[in-house]
Amino acid sequence: MEKFSSFSDKTTGISPFLPTPLHPTLKTYIFHTILIPIKLFTMIPVLLISPLLTLFPNTYKIIIDVILAYFFNLSETEFAIDGVRRLDEKIKISKSPRNGDIIIVNSTGPLDIFVWKMLSENPKNVKIGIANGDGIGIINNWISFVNWCFTGSLNLPNEAKKNIVHITDIDATSSNVDGVSDLKKFVGENGILYVIVEGTITNNKGILSFPRGFDVGAFAKMAISCNYGFKIMSLKVLPTGISNTVIPTNFWYWIFLNFGSMSMNLKYRIKMTVLFDKYTKNGSENVDPSMITDTLIRTILANNSRLKLLSSEMDVKKKREYIQAVLDSREKKYV
Ligand SMILES: *[C@@H]1O[C@H](CO)[C@@H](O)[C@H](O)[C@H]1NC(C)=O
Ligand SMILES: *[C@@H]1O[C@H](CO)[C@@H](O)[C@H](O)[C@H]1NC(C)=O
Ligand SMILES: *[C@@H]1O[C@H](CO)[C@@H](O)[C@H](O)[C@H]1NC(C)=O
Ligand SMILES: *[C@@H]1O[C@H](CO)[C@@H](O)[C@H](O)[C@H]1NC(C)=O
Q: Where are the transmembrane segments (predicted)?
């Protein structure tokens, strides 16, 4: 571990790329081996009728909920919106991720997309954007997202490489407007775009610097000028580690651990801040787009805790170096 100390944050000491060590016991192995076939068998009816039920957004959400709870031990999704009372269901629904919203998020692993779908006005409209130096790579297909998670979430999936939205400075009259038309093309009027702004997955400990060249403030201005809503959502999963895929993770091992258990105990804690609500009547609560900066978004994403903001060299590039260093050291061990 000492060896990799250059990959922890200088000021806070946080190591955002270190996976939580898991030590499944023999009992877990036996238990899960017995339970997985039983679970699969009892799920067959649900899986068979689900294509039909996904036609309706609300039943679609219930199915996702059931599958997450039953297959993945997800017992609770706690969803709070800044400035909205916990029990005020009506306002909560009106502020939740709606059609035509862009939501800046941090990501923990493959289950995130299903949780995002569950929270959104219409799960079918959910798209994922991955921030990188060139802009935002958009994916429509949940399988691409899940693959990206298991491969260490370092490189854009092929689907995203084809659908890049370049960030256009809408204030500069001379700049090209390709970004604007691509955003409208790839997200559409009713799309709900979740942008993984760190450009990768971390282990729940801190917020990375955003990929070099990715100007989230300019993106916010561009998005709002195209009539999208703009929100920030921070995600935490407890207990950390089981469902998290911070480094390349074996799919079957992950499935084995996450699929097998009977009692439910995985929890998502989600907090959202609405910066620009496109559905609000008078707009007085909306933040002036010119005030939306990289720092503002990072601070809100860190749930307003400056302790969680990592220094500028801690970013997706650093994670790439970390994973390379781990691979190299393994190779050395075997020669
Ligand atoms: C599911 O819940 C049980 C009981 O709380 C726990 O022992 C087990 O580790 C959990 N499994 C997962 C994958 O969260
Ligand atoms: C954000 O902070 C509040 C308290 O300030 C806490 O209750 C909540 O769980 C935090 N949310 C996340 C997603 O960390
Ligand atoms: C706008 O809405 C807010 C709350 O939603 C309210 O407090 C305020 O009075 C409204 N302003 C106008 C001009 O209607
Ligand atoms: C996402 O951000 C929240 C708030 O700062 C934090 O509690 C959580 O651990 C972060 N999750 C990941 C995977 O980095």
A: 29-53
